[in-house]
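Thread amino acids onto this structure.
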């Protein structure tokens, strides 16, 4: 799911690395990129898993949704930065490049992508909670799209 969200988000911003004409950096053979990269499955999967994992911790469960959103968004952004520094900068895979976007850090993250990841965090929390409910019969704590309404109302 995270991979699909990544594809749609990058398509909407016209930043699909697989389209060589739109990318400032040519594709590398190990990037496994088409519209996106298979590496994003592992990166996004880890970030999504961690967001769901911390939402099960006792000290995190009772926190306000806006705080959960900020923590998860910061972790997802940090995951993208660290994986970008490793895969893009160190290994030269050219999976993504935010270098042409204003307010970027090393071309690996930008304010715009961090905002998108943070905004997406309640959806990730809801999806993780839904999967845990269906697979492990855990109680439902979030409803969609009510999770965003609750966020706006400060619940």
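Threaded sequence (155 positions):
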């Amino acid at each position: 799911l995270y991979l699909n969200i990544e594809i749609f988000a990058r398509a909407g911003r016209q930043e699909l690395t697989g389209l060589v004409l739109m990318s400032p950096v040519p594709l590398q053979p190990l990037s496994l990129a088409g519209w996106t990269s298979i590496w994003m499955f592992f990166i996004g999967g880890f970030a999504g898993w961690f967001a769901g994992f911390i939402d099960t911790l006792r000290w995190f469960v009772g926190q306000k949704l806006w705080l959960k959103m900020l923590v998860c968004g910061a972790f997802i952004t940090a995951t993208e930065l660290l994986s970008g520094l490793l895969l893009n900068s160190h290994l030269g895979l050219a999976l993504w490049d935010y270098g042409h976007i204003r307010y970027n850090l090393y071309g690996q993250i930008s304010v715009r992508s961090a905002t998108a990841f943070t905004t997406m965090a309640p959806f990730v929390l809801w999806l993780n909670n839904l999967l845990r409910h269906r697979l492990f019969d855990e109680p439902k704590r979030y409803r969609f799209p009510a999770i965003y309404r609750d966020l706006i109302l400060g619940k």
